[in-house]
Amino acid sequence: MPVSPHLLPTYARVDLAFERGEGAWLYTAKGERYLDFASGVAVNALGHAHPVLTKALTEQAHKLWHVSNLYRIPGAETLADRLCAASFADVAFFCNSGTEAIEGAIKMARKYQAVSGKPERYRIVTFEGAFHGRTLAALSATGNKKYLDGFGPPVEGFDQVAYGDLEAVKKAIGPETGAILIEPVMGEGGVRVVPHAFLRALRKLCDERGLLLMFDEVQSGVGRTGALFAYEHSGVTPDIMALAKALGGGFPVGAVLGTAEAAKGMTAGTHGSTFGGNPLAMAVANAVLDVINTKDFLAQVKQTALRFKQKLAELQDRHSSVIAEVRGEGLLMGLRMVPPASAMVDELRTENMLVPAAGDNVVRLLPPLIIGEAEIDYAVNAIDRACVRLSQMHAPKKGAA
Fold first, then answer.
1. What is residue 83's three-state secondary structure?
2. Rounded alpha-carbon distances, angstroms, from residue 266 to 39, 98, 124
3. Distance between CA 61 and CA 77 in Å, rounded?
4. What is the DSSP letter of 89?
5. What is the DSSP string of 96-163?
6. DSSP string over 4-25
7. Nearest to residue 91, comparing CAs of 70, 110, 105, 106?
């Protein structure tokens, strides 16, 4: 059956649909089973139909769905308390997606400078290869012409510089600069782990020049890298951070976290979200933290990631004509390919394994954080077989120069 003509064709959808999921596996209506190493693009951190999340959502669904932020929402207050206790932040704002979280972060940074007596400092330095979302301001922060083409002039206020170039950052900072925005691990941009020394240099630069440091942890946050937040690996704390994806484990929820100082301009009426922080989302997000934010769970993610990365390195050694590099932090991993990344995505789908591509010719590996040895072995064997076929397909022809 063809895709409905009534769906706006903004996605090049694969002709594959799923009826149910369990753990790291998805099942079609015909009973075909697929290993899900896309996780809804780093969303389903606890896999599919996790009993703790299912119980939390079902119980809340029988009580209360929506009341709006005109009234107190106890679950939101609890989640805010927990996220702040586990991070650098003093305050939290809840929304529905990563893009909304980025928009809220941008507004928070600009408002901070305005109430600090410097309203001219509204510009934000961003980096090539980043991805911050699909709304007009988030796209402008991303700066990718492919995504911006045809939508009129970009939103003013973003200065993009080369990734990893500290001198370019310094040159981009002017009297109108108010903040720097970066992903500690650039997921969509090719699973590039930003060097910790570079993050430390950005923190120092912000402190010296009165700028706010903003981290986009929409993809890397909530256990994905083996720490609750990716910034913990570097020891560099931001002033503002955007979260989403894994925070709801599949239920739409995003968050903006900030220090009290960075958020001092965000007073009543300055920002809002009709659905943000609703009881359903808060029940699920609190349940996600119940599972993920424990020493044992995060330690298990680190151990699983180490085993998986070692096996991927062995595959790279055996198939160097196909896999150029193994990248990543924790279970946010990437294979930089020699042949097109899309070819590996297609080959793995024939192995009943789902993965998404990324920039820099990278295939992302984003399994649920609950995977064990059986799923790792299945994935490694599938990648191995796919590499054999790709090496044959892309091998130089005899007699070629």
1. helix
2. 34, 19, 18
3. 19
4. -
5. SSHHHHHHHHHHHHHHHHHHTT-TT--EEEEETT----SSHHHHHHH--HHHHTTS-SPPS-EEEE-T
6. PTTS---S---S---SEEEBTE
7. 105
Which residues does residue 363 pair with via DSSP β-bridges, in sequence order?
335, 357
Cα torsion through 318, 224, 218, 368, rounded to 10: 80
Would you say 216 and 231 are in contact if contact means Cβ atoms under 8 Å apart? no
- Is the pTM higher than 0.85? yes
The answer to whether the beta carbons of residues 169 and 109 sit under 8 Å apart is: no
List 240's β-bridge partners, or say none.
214, 258
Which two tokens mark 31?
């009973």
Distance, in Å, from the CA atom of 394 to the CA atom of 347, rounded to the nearest integer, reads 13
Are the beta carbons of 326 and 309 closer than 8 angstroms?
yes
Tell me if 220 sits within 8 A of 184, measured CB to CB: yes
Q: Quick one: 341 exposed, middle or buried, by C-beta within 10 A (0-12, 13-18, 19+)?
A: buried
Task: Find, among 123, 194, 132, the residue nearest to 159 by Cα.
Answer: 123
- Here the tokens at position 366 are 């984003």
Q: What are phi and psi of 99, to 5 degrees?
A: -60, -45
**CB atoms near residue 7 (< 10 Å):** 9
Per-residue pLDDT 10s for the chain (401 aa) are 678 899 998 888 999 999 999 999 999 999 999 999 999 999 999 999 999 999 999 999 999 999 999 999 999 999 999 999 999 999 999 999 999 999 999 999 999 999 999 999 999 999 999 999 999 899 888 888 888 888 888 889 999 999 999 999 999 999 999 999 999 999 999 999 999 999 999 999 999 999 999 999 999 999 999 999 999 999 999 999 999 999 999 999 999 999 999 999 999 999 999 999 999 999 999 999 999 999 999 999 999 999 999 999 999 999 999 999 999 999 999 999 999 999 999 999 999 999 999 999 999 999 999 999 999 999 999 999 999 999 988 666 555 54
Give the strand order in the sheet containing 25-27.
Answer: 20-22, 25-27, 33-36, 353-354
* Structural element, H or E, at residue 205: helix 196-209
Q: Cβ(269)–Cβ(49) under 8 Å?
A: no
